[in-house]
Specification:
Blueprint: H1 7-25, H2 30-58, H3 62-72
Length: 112
């Protein structure tokens, strides 16, 4: 059986019902009752979702957190069995390995 992930919606519906009963007890018109209970639904559902997500995130083990961080990072990762990225190029302001001149090395690019 899969985990139930809609607890924030259930909390929002319960808060919506409470707000509707309170609005009716305060003799608000129907438009005000629907509007206030809708606002309460959204606020409680968003709060419950963030609280549940924070609790789930804290319960992750270090290994799960590392794999989650790797899966959501923007840096490319090599596929399994593929070689990783090569050595990084030296900075442009460093002298070239064979050049004796003090200026930057000449590069042949297709730049205009």
């Amino acid at each position: 059986m899969a985990k139930f992930r809609g607890l924030h919606v259930v909390a929002g519906i319960a808060a919506m019902l409470v707000a509707a009963f309170l609005g009716s007890a305060m003799k608000l018109n129907n438009t005000a009752v629907v509007m206030s209970s809708s606002v309460v639904f959204v606020a409680v559902a968003m709060w419950a979702d963030s609280a549940l997500t924070r609790r789930r995130r804290e319960s992750l083990t270090l290994q799960q957190a590392a794999s989650l961080e790797q899966a959501t990072s923007l840096e490319p990762h090599p596929a399994p069995g593929q070689p990783g990225p090569g050595p990084e190029a030296p900075p442009l302001d460093s002298p070239s390995p064979g050049g004796s001149s003090g200026g930057p090395a000449k590069r042949e690019d297709n730049a205009a």
